[in-house]
Amino acid sequence: MNILFIGDIVGASGRAAVKKHLPALKQRYDIDFVIANGENAAHGKGITPRIYQELITSGIDCITLGNHAYSKSEILPIKDQADRLVFPVNLLPVSEMSQTKVFRVKNKSIAVTNLMTQVFMENVSQSPFDVMDQILGSVKADIHVIDLHGEATSEKIAFAYQYKNDLGAVFGTHTHVQTADERIIDGCAFISDAGMTGPYESIIGRDIEEVLMRITQKKATKYTIAESDAVFCAVFVRFDENHRADCIERIQIRP
Ligand SMILES: [Fe+2]
Ligand SMILES: [Fe+2]
Q: In a 10 Å sphere around its CB, with 0-12 CB exposed, 13-18 middle and 19+ buried, how is residue 201 labelled?
Protein backbone atom coordinates (compact mmCIF):
# COMPACT_ATOMS: atom_id res chain seq x y z
CA MET A 1 0.00 0.00 0.00
CA ASN A 2 1.42 3.35 -1.05
CA ILE A 3 0.15 6.55 0.54
CA LEU A 4 0.91 10.16 -0.33
CA PHE A 5 0.28 12.84 2.29
CA ILE A 6 0.21 16.46 1.06
CA GLY A 7 1.04 19.26 3.54
CA ASP A 8 -1.36 22.16 4.22
CA ILE A 9 -2.76 23.39 0.90
CA VAL A 10 -2.91 27.20 1.03
CA GLY A 11 -5.09 29.25 -1.30
CA ALA A 12 -5.38 29.29 -5.07
CA SER A 13 -1.68 28.79 -5.82
CA GLY A 14 -1.57 25.77 -3.51
CA ARG A 15 -4.55 24.24 -5.27
CA ALA A 16 -2.92 24.93 -8.63
CA ALA A 17 0.24 23.15 -7.45
CA VAL A 18 -1.80 20.07 -6.56
CA LYS A 19 -3.24 19.98 -10.08
CA LYS A 20 0.20 20.51 -11.57
CA HIS A 21 2.18 17.91 -9.62
CA LEU A 22 -0.20 15.26 -8.29
CA PRO A 23 -0.87 13.26 -11.50
CA ALA A 24 2.84 12.65 -12.17
CA LEU A 25 3.59 11.84 -8.51
CA LYS A 26 0.75 9.33 -8.36
CA GLN A 27 2.23 7.57 -11.33
CA ARG A 28 5.84 7.77 -10.21
CA TYR A 29 5.17 6.40 -6.70
CA ASP A 30 2.29 4.11 -7.71
CA ILE A 31 0.07 5.81 -5.14
CA ASP A 32 -3.04 4.01 -3.88
CA PHE A 33 -4.40 6.67 -1.52
CA VAL A 34 -3.85 10.43 -1.30
CA ILE A 35 -4.47 12.39 1.89
CA ALA A 36 -4.09 16.17 2.01
CA ASN A 37 -4.46 18.76 4.73
CA GLY A 38 -6.97 21.31 3.43
CA GLU A 39 -7.48 23.59 6.42
CA ASN A 40 -6.11 26.60 4.50
CA ALA A 41 -7.46 25.70 1.06
CA ALA A 42 -10.09 28.45 0.89
CA HIS A 43 -8.11 31.70 0.80
CA GLY A 44 -5.96 30.64 3.73
CA LYS A 45 -8.68 29.77 6.23
CA GLY A 46 -11.01 26.80 6.08
CA ILE A 47 -12.59 25.01 3.16
CA THR A 48 -15.79 25.55 1.15
CA PRO A 49 -17.98 22.96 -0.64
CA ARG A 50 -16.68 24.15 -4.03
CA ILE A 51 -13.04 23.82 -3.00
CA TYR A 52 -13.66 20.47 -1.32
CA GLN A 53 -15.04 19.23 -4.65
CA GLU A 54 -12.17 20.84 -6.57
CA LEU A 55 -9.57 19.04 -4.46
CA ILE A 56 -11.34 15.68 -4.73
CA THR A 57 -11.55 16.14 -8.51
CA SER A 58 -7.82 16.94 -8.50
CA GLY A 59 -7.14 13.40 -7.28
CA ILE A 60 -7.16 13.68 -3.49
CA ASP A 61 -9.00 10.84 -1.71
CA CYS A 62 -9.23 12.28 1.80
CA ILE A 63 -8.93 15.82 3.20
CA THR A 64 -7.93 16.51 6.79
CA LEU A 65 -8.26 19.86 8.57
CA GLY A 66 -6.98 21.61 11.70
CA ASN A 67 -7.57 24.73 13.78
CA HIS A 68 -9.17 26.42 10.72
CA ALA A 69 -11.62 23.52 10.19
CA TYR A 70 -14.72 25.64 10.77
CA SER A 71 -13.43 29.00 9.47
CA LYS A 72 -15.78 28.84 6.45
CA SER A 73 -19.25 28.06 7.75
CA GLU A 74 -20.41 27.16 4.20
CA ILE A 75 -18.89 23.73 4.74
CA LEU A 76 -21.30 22.84 7.55
CA PRO A 77 -24.45 22.20 5.47
CA ILE A 78 -22.61 19.60 3.36
CA LYS A 79 -20.77 17.88 6.24
CA ASP A 80 -22.80 14.69 5.83
CA GLN A 81 -22.23 14.45 2.05
CA ALA A 82 -18.55 15.36 2.38
CA ASP A 83 -17.60 11.79 3.24
CA ARG A 84 -13.92 12.36 2.41
CA LEU A 85 -13.52 15.26 4.81
CA VAL A 86 -11.99 14.45 8.21
CA PHE A 87 -12.55 16.99 10.99
CA PRO A 88 -10.27 17.21 14.05
CA VAL A 89 -11.44 14.80 16.74
CA ASN A 90 -10.31 16.86 19.73
CA LEU A 91 -10.83 20.46 18.63
CA LEU A 92 -13.20 22.18 21.08
CA PRO A 93 -16.14 22.21 21.05
CA VAL A 94 -16.19 18.56 20.01
CA SER A 95 -19.10 17.92 17.61
CA GLU A 96 -20.61 14.93 15.83
CA MET A 97 -18.23 15.70 12.93
CA SER A 98 -15.27 15.02 15.21
CA GLN A 99 -14.52 11.45 14.28
CA THR A 100 -12.10 9.10 12.57
CA LYS A 101 -13.11 8.00 9.07
CA VAL A 102 -12.28 4.60 7.62
CA PHE A 103 -11.67 4.16 3.87
CA ARG A 104 -11.60 0.98 1.81
CA VAL A 105 -8.54 0.83 -0.47
CA LYS A 106 -7.39 -2.26 -2.42
CA ASN A 107 -9.38 -4.51 -0.07
CA LYS A 108 -7.70 -3.00 2.99
CA SER A 109 -9.04 -0.53 5.51
CA ILE A 110 -7.29 2.78 6.16
CA ALA A 111 -8.42 4.82 9.18
CA VAL A 112 -7.66 8.54 9.07
CA THR A 113 -7.74 10.62 12.25
CA ASN A 114 -7.12 14.36 12.48
CA LEU A 115 -5.80 15.28 15.94
CA MET A 116 -4.75 18.64 17.34
CA THR A 117 -1.76 19.03 19.65
CA GLN A 118 -1.82 21.43 22.62
CA VAL A 119 1.55 23.18 23.10
CA PHE A 120 1.40 26.80 21.78
CA MET A 121 -2.11 26.08 20.43
CA GLU A 122 -4.08 28.47 22.67
CA ASN A 123 -6.07 25.87 24.61
CA VAL A 124 -8.37 24.99 21.73
CA SER A 125 -8.19 21.22 22.07
CA GLN A 126 -8.39 18.23 24.38
CA SER A 127 -5.24 16.20 25.08
CA PRO A 128 -4.33 14.27 21.90
CA PHE A 129 -2.99 11.48 24.12
CA ASP A 130 -6.24 11.03 26.08
CA VAL A 131 -8.32 11.17 22.90
CA MET A 132 -6.01 8.77 21.04
CA ASP A 133 -6.37 6.22 23.86
CA GLN A 134 -10.15 6.39 23.44
CA ILE A 135 -9.99 6.09 19.66
CA LEU A 136 -7.74 3.02 19.78
CA GLY A 137 -10.40 1.24 21.82
CA SER A 138 -13.06 1.79 19.17
CA VAL A 139 -11.45 2.11 15.72
CA LYS A 140 -10.19 -0.99 13.95
CA ALA A 141 -8.36 -0.79 10.60
CA ASP A 142 -5.42 -2.38 8.79
CA ILE A 143 -3.57 0.94 8.68
CA HIS A 144 -4.27 3.91 10.94
CA VAL A 145 -2.93 7.26 9.77
CA ILE A 146 -2.85 10.42 11.89
CA ASP A 147 -2.68 14.03 10.75
CA LEU A 148 -1.19 15.53 13.94
CA HIS A 149 -1.87 19.22 13.70
CA GLY A 150 0.15 21.61 15.86
CA GLU A 151 3.15 23.83 16.53
CA ALA A 152 5.58 21.92 18.72
CA THR A 153 7.88 19.33 17.16
CA SER A 154 8.67 17.80 20.57
CA GLU A 155 5.02 17.07 21.28
CA LYS A 156 4.59 15.42 17.88
CA ILE A 157 7.70 13.25 18.35
CA ALA A 158 6.51 12.23 21.81
CA PHE A 159 3.13 11.26 20.34
CA ALA A 160 4.79 9.12 17.66
CA TYR A 161 6.80 7.21 20.27
CA GLN A 162 3.75 6.69 22.45
CA TYR A 163 1.64 5.19 19.63
CA LYS A 164 4.21 3.73 17.20
CA ASN A 165 2.91 0.19 17.68
CA ASP A 166 -0.72 1.16 17.09
CA LEU A 167 -0.32 3.47 14.11
CA GLY A 168 0.91 3.19 10.53
CA ALA A 169 1.89 6.83 10.11
CA VAL A 170 1.92 10.13 11.98
CA PHE A 171 2.15 13.16 9.70
CA GLY A 172 2.67 16.49 11.44
CA THR A 173 0.97 19.56 9.94
CA HIS A 174 0.17 23.22 10.79
CA THR A 175 3.58 24.97 10.88
CA HIS A 176 3.73 25.09 7.05
CA VAL A 177 7.49 24.47 7.28
CA GLN A 178 8.64 21.02 6.19
CA THR A 179 10.96 19.31 8.65
CA ALA A 180 13.85 17.06 7.58
CA ASP A 181 13.21 14.43 10.27
CA GLU A 182 11.22 11.87 8.30
CA ARG A 183 11.84 8.40 9.67
CA ILE A 184 10.29 5.06 10.48
CA ILE A 185 9.90 4.27 14.18
CA ASP A 186 9.32 0.51 14.59
CA GLY A 187 7.06 0.34 11.52
CA CYS A 188 5.36 3.70 12.08
CA ALA A 189 6.20 6.40 9.52
CA PHE A 190 6.77 9.82 11.06
CA ILE A 191 7.56 13.41 10.15
CA SER A 192 7.21 16.42 12.48
CA ASP A 193 5.75 18.52 9.66
CA ALA A 194 4.91 17.63 6.08
CA GLY A 195 5.21 21.30 5.07
CA MET A 196 3.01 23.56 2.99
CA THR A 197 1.61 23.40 -0.52
CA GLY A 198 1.15 27.11 -1.03
CA PRO A 199 2.80 30.41 -2.02
CA TYR A 200 6.58 30.05 -1.82
CA GLU A 201 7.35 33.80 -1.61
CA SER A 202 5.35 34.34 1.55
CA ILE A 203 5.42 34.06 5.32
CA ILE A 204 3.87 30.62 5.79
CA GLY A 205 1.39 31.44 3.02
CA ARG A 206 0.51 35.00 3.93
CA ASP A 207 1.49 38.25 2.23
CA ILE A 208 4.99 39.26 3.38
CA GLU A 209 4.39 43.03 3.72
CA GLU A 210 1.21 42.48 5.67
CA VAL A 211 2.83 40.14 8.19
CA LEU A 212 5.85 42.45 8.60
CA MET A 213 3.52 45.39 9.26
CA ARG A 214 1.69 43.37 11.88
CA ILE A 215 4.91 42.33 13.62
CA THR A 216 6.90 45.57 13.44
CA GLN A 217 4.11 48.16 13.74
CA LYS A 218 1.60 46.10 15.74
CA LYS A 219 -1.07 47.04 13.20
CA ALA A 220 -4.23 45.02 12.73
CA THR A 221 -4.18 43.48 9.26
CA LYS A 222 -6.43 41.49 7.01
CA TYR A 223 -5.52 37.90 6.14
CA THR A 224 -4.14 38.32 2.66
CA ILE A 225 -2.74 35.24 1.00
CA ALA A 226 0.45 35.77 -1.02
CA GLU A 227 0.11 35.38 -4.76
CA SER A 228 3.41 33.77 -5.73
CA ASP A 229 3.70 30.33 -7.29
CA ALA A 230 3.51 27.51 -4.80
CA VAL A 231 5.96 25.11 -3.29
CA PHE A 232 4.54 21.57 -3.21
CA CYS A 233 5.29 19.60 -0.04
CA ALA A 234 4.30 16.01 0.58
CA VAL A 235 5.44 12.72 2.11
CA PHE A 236 5.35 9.30 0.50
CA VAL A 237 4.99 6.19 2.66
CA ARG A 238 5.00 2.54 1.62
CA PHE A 239 3.45 -0.18 3.79
CA ASP A 240 4.44 -3.84 3.65
CA GLU A 241 2.10 -6.87 3.68
CA ASN A 242 1.93 -6.64 7.49
CA HIS A 243 0.65 -3.06 7.16
CA ARG A 244 3.83 -1.63 8.67
CA ALA A 245 5.67 1.28 7.07
CA ASP A 246 8.93 0.24 5.41
CA CYS A 247 9.76 3.33 3.37
CA ILE A 248 9.26 7.07 3.86
CA GLU A 249 10.32 9.80 1.48
CA ARG A 250 9.95 13.55 1.83
CA ILE A 251 8.93 15.45 -1.30
CA GLN A 252 9.43 19.17 -1.86
CA ILE A 253 9.01 20.76 -5.29
CA ARG A 254 9.83 24.47 -5.37
CA PRO A 255 8.45 26.73 -8.11
FE1 LIG B 1 -2.25 25.26 8.07
FE1 LIG C 1 -3.31 25.01 11.42
A: middle
